[in-house]
Amino acid sequence: MRRRWFVGQGLAASAAVLGWGHLRSRPDGSSAAGGPPADGPQSLVIGAGLAGLACAQRLIAAGHAVVVLEARQRLGGRIWTDRRQGWPIELGASWLHGLETNPLVDLVERQLKLPLLPTDDSSRITIGPDGQPWTAGRSEGADAWLAAAMARAQADGRADQPLRQLLPAQLSGDQRFLLIADVEHELGADLDAIAADAPGGDGQELLGGDALVPAGLDRLVAHLAQGVDIRLGQQVSQINNRADGVTVTTAGGQVFQAQRLCCTVPLGVLQRGAIRFDPPLPAAKAQAIAQLGMGVLDKIVLVFGERFWGPQTWIRNDSAEPGLWAEWVDLTPLIGRPALMGFNAASQARQMARRSDDGIVASALGQLRRCYPQATIGAPLQVWLTRWGDDPFAFGSYSYPAVGPVPATALRQELGRRWQSLVLAGEAASTAFPATMQGAYLSGREAAERLLA
Ligand SMILES: Cc1cc2nc3c(=O)[nH]c(=O)nc-3n(C[C@H](O)[C@H](O)[C@H](O)COP(=O)(O)OP(=O)(O)OC[C@H]3O[C@@H](n4cnc5c(N)ncnc54)[C@H](O)[C@@H]3O)c2cc1C
Fold first, then answer.
1. Which of 62, 63, 64, 387 has its CA 20 to 30 A from that of 334?
2. 91 CB contacts (<8 Å, ≥6 apart)?
3. 237-250, pLDDT tens digit by residue?
């Protein structure tokens, strides 16, 4: 998610953040069934993640009565801030990327007045299979190799070719590790599955570094949800889409009608066919859903009684088992307790998710003990872990450009194109910043503009 290897000349994204309009809520708070209200046009939004909330806010600002249907019993979708210990732990998105062009920075810093905590990618230690830290020269050499390899892919890579094909058949251990830590972890997918044009052809460069939000990303979600009529626990199972309006049916049998609909369920949910479209989605949209990939990045957060690691922000675990807990980040500055967050991605993450919780924790501790053999690493005081690939309302972490005949940007464009009374939105429909929070947010706002046009 950090695009350390991005070698493009990214363009600045439109960072305009429009002001909120007044809310038109139905006085009785009733369901949206029964057609448009007397006082103005009516819209439905499916999903209360960033895309859905951004879309709802824009429609409300334009005078629409909006109802948001959300399957979970919480807001935020793939922003999931857990506060069960009293402090915020991010189990979904963590970093605001590309601070120079990220419209969420304005919301967080200037509107919510919440501080950002920038993180430094260069503050890292990589511990090799022999237990020895990589030297600075070794790191620089590997980084230079990766930058050159990605530049070649940017110049020559095609959508219908796996990225792996553009790389040397024989990779050194260091090269293989960097590809896992910097490319597979970023996209949530194996090199064989990623399209070779990914480094140049999917999204814009993220300019301006990354930062965490110590107060918790749920504060941003709550801000965007203010004044929006959101119905939790409403899992949509069918959408009837006509030129003059939509009818939405939930798994519980409730029916909602509106003139317009923005559907922001994740790509993974669309791929599973969890929502039946009547008439079926046009062929080009169906192809976009089938060809784009849904990647997996899973996290574990471990709080310890005391620190046993050094001052670096990033601990990179180049173990004999490639990709296993390949990266750790020190969360101590964020939550004020000795804590580490570890990551698995792609097939490594999918395999790990099949283990029991205890098995996952044991695996993570085993790798930390490998990295710090001198330390006595006891059982963690608190543990959080995720299985995003199995989440029934996401089926993955974020989209990526998978190998196929059509370049990802064209697929994402097609996904977001208006079809009768409906627009699909969300990070997968963002051509500028796919797989990110700002991509979801901007996609939601763009969807609203399409519905208003
Ligand atoms: C582990 C992880 C790490 C990440 N790290 C970062 C990061 O550091 N920085 C970053 O910018 N991005 C990161 N991302 C990506 C970011 O979280 C997403 O791009 C963004 O939050 C997606 O927003 P969205 O509105 O498109 O989708 P979502 O947030 O998924 O919202 C869609 C909503 O639809 C709901 N829904 C699903 N099915 C139904 C249904 N049938 N009926 C009704 N509702 C339904 C879901 O419950 C959900 O609330 C990360 C994601 C994950 C999982």
1. 387
2. 80, 81, 82, 299, 301, 384, 386
3. 999 999 999 999 99
